[in-house]
Every structure is written in structure tokens, then in C-alpha cells.
Amino acid sequence: MLPLGAGLRRLKTRKQNRIYRRSGIVSDAVGTPVLSARGLRKEHGKGEGSVRAVDGVDLDVSAGETVAIMGPSGCGKSTLLHLLGGLDRPSAGEMSLNGRRIDNISEKALALMRRTEVSYVFQSFHLMEELTAVENVELAALLAGRSPRVARRRAEELLDQLGLAGRARFLPSALSGGQRQRVAVARALSNEPLVVLADEPTGNLDSAATLDVLQLFEDLHESGQTLVIVTHDARIAATADRKFSMRDGAFADETWLTGGTTGQLGALVGLED
Ligand SMILES: Nc1ncnc2c1ncn2[C@@H]1O[C@H](COP(=O)(O)OP(=O)(O)OP(=O)(O)O)[C@@H](O)[C@H]1O
């Protein structure tokens, strides 16, 4: 088994190739945000009882960047993440993925985007309990259009790289919380997503497993994976390039943790080394 960091770094070359391939040239991968939102709004419900959960969010996430979103309970973090990943539709505003509008596309196109271009890691893992670890990961790759042979190979490879080779045939019920979240991360990577969206990835974990998953997200960041993480955990947020504080559906504050534009330049360096 490869050490976790080394395993993920091996993924990096493939990721670089994918970004080059999809974007055509490097400057596109850096210049065009992977994920972008303008004037994003979401109202839950209608009329007097409606709640404006997201209220005018602008966001650009560059290739290879990790963005953390923090804020008090109910400020709209999960709703925003759902909008960004196409799990829900905005009431107003525009969103783009790799330069392509996604706020006004058909349900079919949105479903395809969810299977092939974005991935999620949830607080409560959302693994299929009747499937083994490798089957959970493989299923996501199959849904993204990989052949059964490629899907199985990729699933085994990812579990190996995430330190779970010995647990591949275990059902989720036989895994610890940290191991389940690792399977969920392997599943999220199985379609080679442009961006991984994580909603409180350590919210259901004890402190030892939290440290484990924290390291995992640092390694993912290091591997060049674009990440948007909603979290209450300042340690997770500290692994990000930028941190947004959300209040009442909008960003109240933005903090560069890796120093202004050097965060974006860092992504460029990461692509080229
Ligand atoms: N499906 C829904 N229908 C009606 N209101 C909703 C729905 N989902 C969320 N809300 C409301 O929208 C607001 C934002 O909720 P959201 O879950 O996005 O907040 P959050 O910041 O993620 O909270 P937490 O940190 O507790 O998970 C809250 O007032 C919530 O009650």
C-alpha cells in the first residue's frame, strides 16, 4: 500500500492531463474559474413563509484551489453547496462550471453534470449499506460512464491510495466513521471530478477520525483537486486557500490563507510541476 500522500500525488499527473485536455490550454485552466457564481439567490418556499437561504453570492473558484465556507447554523452554507453542485436550482443568478452555464440547463444535462463533473462528500457519508466499499466506489464510476473493468480497477486503485485496500470487501457497517468517510472520498474521486463539494465532512467523526480526514483533505488539496468545503471546523478551514464567512445567506468576509493572488499562482505551479 502506498502512503496516502504519495498515492494521491500519483493521481495528480492524471488530473493535470485532464485539466489540460478539458481546458485546451493551461491559461484557460487558471484564467477561467472552475466554478463561478454571480448574484446567486435561493428562496425556500413561497409567499410569507418563504426563507431566503442564499442572498446574492458571488464566487470564483480556480483550478486546484481549496475554498472553505464557514458561518453559523442556518446561514445558508448547505443550500449554497447544493446550488453549486446542481442538487438544487437557484431562484436567481448565474453559475458556470468550467466556463459553461449550469443554472439554466435541462434536468438531463444537470443529472449528467452531477454524475460526471462534480462530486460530493456528505457529513453522514451516504454510502449504500448493502454494497461493499469497492462496490460503492465502483458504482459511482459506472454511473460516470466507465466500463465495468475500468470502474473496478479505478475503485480498487482509489481504495488502495486512500489506505483501504484491506477493507475493500467490507460493508460500510463494518467500517469505522473515518474509514467510511475515506470510502466516500474515494467514491467522490472515482469520476475524476472538476470539483469536489464537501458538506461538513468531519461533522460525524470523533477527534481521531477528524484528524485522519483532515489529513486526507490536505492531501487532496496537495494533489491539485479543486475543493469547496463547508465546515464548522477551523482546522479544516485552515487547509484552504481562501475562507469565506457567511451570514444571512451572503458572504460577510473573505480571507486569503495562502496570500492573495499567490493562491491562484500556486494552482498554476501545481499544474506545471
Ligand atoms: N428545504 C427547505 N425548505 C425550507 N427552508 C429550508 C430548506 N432548507 C433549508 N432551509 C432554511 O434555509 C436556511 C439555510 O439553511 P442551510 O441548511 O443552508 O444552512 P446551514 O448554514 O447549512 O446550516 P447548518 O450549519 O445548521 O447545516 C435555514 O433558515 C433553513 O431553515
TrEMBL record:
Classification via InterPro entries: AAA+_ATPase (IPR003593), ABC_transporter-like_ATP-bd (IPR003439), ABC_transporter-like_CS (IPR017871), ABC_transpr_LolD-like (IPR015854), MacB-like_ATP-bd (IPR017911), P-loop_NTPase (IPR027417)
Sequence intervals crossing the membrane: none
Keywords attached to this entry: ATP-binding, Nucleotide-binding, Transport
Gene3D superfamilies according to UniProt: P-loop containing nucleotide triphosphate hydrolases (3.40.50.300)
GO MF term (any one): ATP binding
Nucleotide-binding among keywords: yes
Signal peptide: none
Family annotation (PROSITE patterns): ABC_TRANSPORTER_1 (PS00211), ABC_TRANSPORTER_2 (PS50893)
Full protein name: ABC transporter ATP-binding protein
Organism: Streptosporangium pseudovulgare
